[in-house]
Amino acid sequence: MTVRIGIVAGELSGDQLGGTLIQALQEQTGGDLRVEGVAGPRMIQAGALPLADCRELAVMGLVEVIRHVPRLLRLRRELAEHFLRNRPDVFVGIDAPDFTLGLERRLRDAGIPTVHYVSPSVWAWRQGRVRGIRRSVDAMLTLLPFEADFYRRHGVPVRFVGHPLADVFPDPPDQAAARHRLALPETGAVVALLPGSRLGEVKLLADPFLGAARLIAARHPATHFLLPLAHAGLRAPLEAALARAAPGITLRFLEVGARDALEASDAALVASGTATLEAMLLGCPMVVAYRLAPLTHALARHLVRADHVALPNLLAGERLVPELLQEAATAEALADEMLALLAQPARGAALRTRFAALRSGLRAGGAAAAADAVLRVARGVGPG
Fold it and tell me: Whole-structure pTM over 0.85, yes or no?
């Protein structure tokens, strides 16, 4: 009998997870599967029928989201009505908690089992949200082990499934092969720049990242810079920032994703988020930065309870990689941190060793485990 799954993924990182999840569901159901919802290109390629594009949910910040509220509420209402008319065996919300948890609550109240894949950072800020999560989901699937411990303490059915990327990225990473794929010269340092996947964060980080690249190039003219584009819509604003902040540096835009760039690089400047995990899994030493709009930052500063923001630091429980946030994320400060990292090969080697150990701790089945949990919830037996 066909298993029917409703799904909503938020932005491109959710689409990546959703794509691997659907592939695993296809394997475990023998292809007798129907998946529909808010999807991106990877999910569609895996077989999802799109009701909307996942990039519609890619709105950052506490303040910036306000002008998008009417559109998002309308979309959520339309999705709820669709799934109540066309009831899935289970509904899966991937990330985007401010959007998906409300939808999950409504569907669960109507008797549709719900799974939330990727924990919101409730352990770090607004911990009271866990009560709403408990009412909204039949299972929480976490990518990180310490998240599962938090939910168990609060009585939420949970399963740590690990991070799919920990299973699919090369082990060990092969820097030489990645450089060959990108036709990079054998001499000179290679630095990746990853200022984010959302237009809002790119607008805040592009100038300091590219300004840092200009300062690094002034000290080391043979440095090659790689800037992978999360999607085509970012090329124009990044080209404008390049002309403004770093004219004349040797920089190549890549449209093939961040994996090759991170695996090939000696180090990377990375916006805080999923990309820091990808860099860690690919053994790339990094400097992490992030900026929010001033009012958003002022509000968040009073709510966040975490000591770190970069995922490698959160996993290690210590400051493995530098974090430069808000006004500290200047071109000069980023360049200083990167130059210090490039000047200390032993430090880079030590980071790669730690990254490999952290990667091992993130393996718990990944997409296959998540698919198993989703199908278990659909059968009413809990996530396992």
Answer: no
